[in-house]
Amino acid sequence: MSLVPHPPEPPKKPIKAPAPHEELFRQEPGGERDKASFVRAVQNFGQYNVRKRGHVDFIYLALRKMREYGVERDLTVYNLLLDIFPKEVFRPRSVIQRIFLHYPRQQECGIAVLEQMENHGVMPNKETEFLLIQIFGRKSYPMLKYLRMRLWLTRFKNINPFPVPRDLPQDPVDLAKLGLRHIEPDLSARITVYQMPLSDDLTGTEDPIQPHIVGIQSPDQQAALAHHNPARPVFVEGPFSLWLRSKCVYYHILRADLLPPEERKVEKIPEEWNLYYPMQLDLDYGRSGWDDYEFDIDEVEEGPIFAMCMAGAHDQATLAKWIQGLQETNPALAQIPVIFRLAGSTGELLTSSGLEEPPRPLCEVQEEDDDHRKQQQQGRS
Amino acid sequence: MSGCALFLRRAATAARACPALVALSASRRPLSTSRPSRAFAKELFLGKIEKKRVFPFPEVSQDELNEINQFVGPVEKFFNEEVDSQKIDREGKIPDDTLEKLKSLGLFGMQVPEEYGGLGLSNTMYARLGEIISLDGSITVTLAAHQAIGLKGIILVGTEEQKANYLPRLASGEHMAAFCLTEPASGSDAASIQTRATLSEDKKHYILNGSKVWITNGGLANIFTVFAKTEVVDSDGSVKDKMTAFIVERDFGGVTNGKPEDKLGIRGSNTCEVHFENTKVPVENVLGEVGGGFKVAMNILNSGRFSMGSAVAGMLKKLIELTADYACTRKQFNKRLSEFGLIQEKFALMAQKAYVMESMAYLTAGMLDQPELPDCSVEAAMVKVFSSESAWQCVSEALQILGGSGYMKDYPYERMLRDARILLIFEGTNEILRMFIALTGLQHAGRILTERIHELKRGNVTTIMETVGRRIRDSLGRTMDLGLTGNLGVVHPSLGESANKLEENVYYFGRTVENLLLRFGKTIVEEQLVLKRVANVLINLYGMVAVLSRASRSIRIGLRNHDHEILLANMFCTEAYVQNLFSLSQLDKDAPENLDEQIKKVSREILEQRTYICAHPLERTS
Asked: What pTM does this model have?
């Protein structure tokens, strides 16, 4: 054993100084991070430190730690944090103190607490108001921010025209239905569950044998699919991601390419259509410039989308089951060749079309009906 | 000369200054009979908007709202699942188990105070529950006849013993109540009833004799609020016949009812004749005081009217849902029905009327719920007239959207149309209520303006100068600022234009009322066509006020879809403004738009011959 001390190891990562009072938030072995332990940590601060030295730093640290403990939406915890400030000390007592921002760091800290409340959508209550008046006085910046929160948070509660509920459903089928309804809010579109998730008892819910398939299609889309030319293929593309608050769900679409201009047929209004009034006046002139409200937009037309689905697995077998399910309501689909264009990886940041970088595209061009029928029989058996 | 000009200018400036100041100086002069009535609608007749009464829109606390939502849930479930309106309509009676379930839900005593076993709901909560009950017309009418008029008398003017005796059983639904006023010869003319109640020799009973007709719940009720003529000795010794209200139980004997009538709509409710033959009514059962029946009847009828607004609004909302489903699915000429402009117009009309109705009903309910118990009879009447006419129009349009299927009995539309027709007739026919609205307001305005008219007639120079100055100013500019918009405005700036239109209408209306009183004076009671226009203008004004108040509150609080509310509010205000201008211009003297003289002449010639008098178009002279 030599008494020569070891040379210091080269630093692998930048040395982080522990924040002051961090030891209060150290997790006990076997203890879990929840509201009770957070409240205990906060109360310990007050206990060990009668004069509450460094309360500003402690409050900043607590605000950072709130997310780990899962209490960021709890109003009582915020009130507890505001309680840490000593009362009556920071209130301005003279005109000079009122002119200059009295105790600026503490006021900023108070504003930081309220700002985190605002970011998480927590509405302050009368207790918060009382605490703020006691701590900072009625004419302080935190009090101003509190008043603004009282006014604007209520006004902004219903401002989202497409609100997502805060408690998302845990069941994947319900989540899929919610997501599909978000994509297609038109009430005439019908959501059908083609397959419910069934899992083997041995493997548990982690790896269901039969993933869920939930699809959506509106009557317009059904009609368009019925009129689709069987010579042209339809593509199953995906998966595309949809974020609902903090959950990401993936969906696939069934689409076709645009018909080239020569093959597009213009709907001619038949001569004898309406018994009562003429559907078309045979005048030479169209809409005059006075009443023309259309803009000259450079429209990029996309091909028609016939249906969408959300499934548990993103492989071809599941999607083939979806196509089979679609065939019950769209018999024309049996004659149309279906091409699967699936992106291989399930990374969350796919490009919108999914076609630019398909690493290992699983392309399988289905020949005419026979192959498809074989697939059907295989799927059924 | 210059002095005269100076005088004129001073008078003109005095008139141009806030017109409220002029009215204030008028009210400081000693008035003979008016008491300070702070009702909102009556002040509109003077061209003033009492902002404190209607802005902000009356709110209920979150606790009350939670409480009422707890009631709403089970009732809605019951009406959606267990009430079969088609069966009730076909058979002509409400099944007993439905009635039992209604009793167990507590719907038979909604406004009965809690100490007598009822729910003790405030007017706002009662209106809210009325929205759901209105899904079925017969049940609504049965419940309304039982509590809004049947037992209201006991609650309003009953003594403690009467309340303790009757209210518990009525609130639990054990006994039903009915309101007996109409007779074969007196429908709207209530004071001409023939039923008599004579005091017996031992002065302990009244003997009741007479028959009443078209009494809802007549066959099922056990407790009747009967109005009869009694002999009353006046203070100066003369004996007169005055109306008295009695609480009559079926057990008193001599009460018989005829068979249930076969009606066009609300076929589930039981309407029949009730005959009283020597029924002995104890003296303790007189409601109010002997001879005071007229006031009792008026109070009872005035207090139940406003709930019709919210009931009809609830029905219209349901109707919009059903019809929209149909319009968005059915396709004709390769287009959905919802893409055709005429259909969209119908939906916009239904949404607009429902919005206005709701706002008016809840504004009135909020005003009635205030602790000062203000007199809101005019507002309630306005709510009733507007909602009954809109109901008829909107249900008719909804049926039209469905086309042929709307006409079939398989769909509920024809039943709702038939049920909605009675709304224009009962609880005071719309014509009578228009007279009531116009005359009550004119009387109030007349009292305040009496002094000014006297002075004008006497030739007081200052008043004449003021009036002339005001008229010149009126003919120059049309905008009037009554304090709704601007820095201290109570209306949100997005509704500023509509508020300006309202202010203009209100001011112009006040001036027109003054002119009418000057022209007609007491005899305006006979000019029904003039009164009808006054009432229409007032209903539109009240609607505009209610809608602006509610929309401002929605924006201020940030309720969902408040931009849609702004649209509806502005639409209604614009339409009402134009209608008001037309009506008010018709009220001017010798206005070319005023066709009253021609109308009267045509009807006189027709009614003289009691037939259509024009010669047939195919007739020849040679």
From this structure: 0.85
